[in-house]
Each structure stands twice: as structure tokens, then as C-alpha cells.
Amino acid sequence: MKKLTSPVVFLALILFSTLILPVNCSDIANVDWNQTFGGVKNESAYSVVQTQDGGYVLAGSTSSFGVGTSDVWLVKTDSSGNMEWNKSYGGQGDDIASAIIQADAVFVIAGMTSSFGAGGFDYWLVKVDSAGNLLWNRTFGGTADDFGTSVIQTVDGGYALTGWTNSFGAGGEDLWLVKTDVSGIMVWNQTFGSQYNDEAHGLVQTRDDGYLVCGDTTFSSSNQDALLLKTDSNGHMLWNKTFGGSALDTFLSIVQLGDGSIALAGYTASYGLGSNDAWLTKTDSIGDLQWNKTYGGSSDDKAYALINSSDGGFALAGQTNVDTTNNYWLVKTDSLGSVLWDNINNKAMDNFAYSLLQTKDYGYVLCGTADTENNGQDFLLVKVNSSSSASGFSSIIVVGLAVIVVVLLTVIVILAKWKSRLKPKEQV
After folding, report:
1. Which residues have a Cβ under 8 Å from the Cβ of 375 and sit 6 or more positions away?
2. Model pTM?
3. Which domains does the chain have, with CATH numbers?
4. At how many degrees (to 10) do helices 387-422 and 6-20 cross?
5. Fewer CB near the terminus (10 Å): N or C of the chain?
6. What confidence tens digit (pLDDT) does each residue in 214-260 have?
7. Bridge partner residues of 200 (DSSP)
8. Residue 232 has what DSSP assignment?
9. Per residue in 116-156, pLDDT tens?
10. What are residue 319's phi and psi, to 5 degrees?
């Protein structure tokens, strides 16, 4: 039998080695672009949505524009993050937007105001049209401080808000859930808590028209646990679960998955490696723990936002500490919370990510706050591409092509061998 020529052997060995090498789908994602918006003072963006035209709307607060100490500030951009328009809303006091949703081609903003309402800070619900023009606004609260953190549109077309109240409840800060009709008129409200401080940060409506609220509850001055609470459709509590250790732990964002299970993100000082670690927790539909993961190093790491990505995994946005500077941190995981890739801003000045969404092209957009050279803060908007996912897919393609080439080479060698055997021998 004839031996294979050395070039063929060499090529086959290279292709086989490509085949057996492990495929590394963990990449550092690439930033497509980043934009900042602001004036000479302080601006912070706390929430972002993608609009029907592919652009974005950011909501937060501004001290550079408007009429008060701080005003709600809305910024509309195109698909590349270039500003198209901006609007401010508020009075002579402090007005802050914590969350924004897009509902039927308009925008609904939730936050807090000290310019209007019954006293101190009140929940503030603001509705604007697609150009940012004010349609109506409503306040909810008492004579003490009440802070709105989250808003959703409910199945009946109305809205639900959550946060915490010092005006009502059992004492201290209590979780406060407010339900309105389509015009923002209160339908009912419920408080949850004890004599200590209890705060709500995230809210979703469940398939039975009830609500899931996440946040934290305090048992003493040094012990705060993360909290998950379930209500019926009228806000009456059905059950609650706490998660944490001996230090301070909180949930800041919540997602209900298609099978009814629940994913929550925040940060923990009880577990992990640092003073705080970013924290991802998965429960079943009744709040029983399935698994939890921590992310971070020896310094301060937090997750403020969580989404369930299109591949069934999760993405978290928040902050991590790099060389004494806080930097935004985007972490992508699989469905079990194992890290696939991350992206860190790694700038010389502090910057944070407070909100996150997956874009129509399967990339990610986050918004937050970036320190400026004049000691102020600006809105921060960052687009991260999906090349890490594509990179993993490309690696799979390369391996597949290697398999095909190896098979073809093997077939060629076998055919050549058979041909040599079938060829008539030369007469001596």
C-alpha cells in the first residue's frame, strides 16, 4: 500500500487538531458606540427603552436644565445614540424619573417629586406622547417621603407602581404597591412591612394577574435580607420569601420566565468575594430557591438591572471596581448563571449602569451615569454588539468545516487507494 504524501498528512493533522481543540465561546463583547448627554451640573439616567424607529429614550434627572433643583429629564436618540430631542418636567423642588416604559406609542414615567403632591416626596406618574409632550401627571403619597422606583403596564391597560412609603404602613419605610386605571387614577394600594425599613425595587405582573415584587426587608440595623413577595390581582399578599445571610443583601431587578420560574438580580454582602458582589438568584414559581450565583472580586460589585436574553440566558448590568474606580459592568450568562462574557468600561472616572435592554439586532444597550472632567455627571448610553455570540457561532462553523474537509480528504485517499489496486499491472 502506498503511503500518504507528507503534505496531506500535515493538513489532516492540522484539521484534526482543530476538531479536537475545545471551542471557547466566552468572549469580551465589543462596544459599538457610547454617548453622553448633559450640561454643566449633574445628570443621571436610570431607565432606557428602545423605540419603534430603532432609537432609544432615556429617563432620569437633570440639574443643568429645567426649573427646579433637579427635574425629570427625557432624552430621545436615533439608533446610533445621537440626540434627537430632550424634555424636562418638574417644578421648583426635586423631581426624578426612576423608570420608563413604552405603552401604545407613548411613554409612561415613574419616579418621585417634591415639587407637587401632599408633602415631602411623592410617587410621580407622568405620561407623555411620542414627542415628549406632557399628556398628564399624577402624584400619590402622604405628608412624609414616598419614593417610586418601578412601573409596569397592567393587562387591563392601567399601571402599577411600586417603591416605598414613609407616610403609610406599619412604620419606618414600607413597600408600597399602587394600582391605577388607564388615566393614572388610583384604584387601590397596599403596604407591606414591619416597624423597620422595607423597600421595593422591581415589579412584574404574573399570568394570574397578580404581582411579584422584589426588594429588601430589614430585621435590625445590621441585617437586611433580599425579599420576594407575591400578591393576588388586588394586591393582597399570598406569600413572601427572604434570601440572604448575616450582612446586607438586596434584589433590585426581577424577571418572570416562560415556565413561571423567577430570576432576580441585585447584590450581596453575605456571600461572594468582596464587600458587595453582584448576585443572580433563580427560584421556582412559588419562590423556592433553585440556584444562585455571585460575580465579582475583592471590591464592590453590584447588579442593578437584569434581563432574560433571547438565547435563554441572562444579562446583568451594574458596576464593578477597577483600580479604585467604579466602572459599568455588563455580564452575560447562560441559563444556569455561568458567565459567557462580560464588558467593563475601564475608564479613569466613575461610571455606572442602571438599566439594560436587548436590542432588535440582539445586541445590548445600557444606560447610567458617567463622571465628567468638570466634576459633574452626564447621562451615559452604551451599545454593545452581539459579536461574542456570533464569535461562538463562528467557532462552531470553523469546526464544522474542518470536519467536512477531513471527511473529504479521507474519501479522496480511499478512492486513490482503490484506484491503485484496480489499475492493471505493467508487463515486465
Report:
1. none
2. 0.85
3. 45-143 (2.40.128)
4. 140
5. C
6. 999 998 767 899 999 999 999 999 999 999 999 999 999 999 999 99
7. 215
8. -
9. 999 999 999 999 999 999 999 999 999 999 999 999 999 99
10. -145, 150
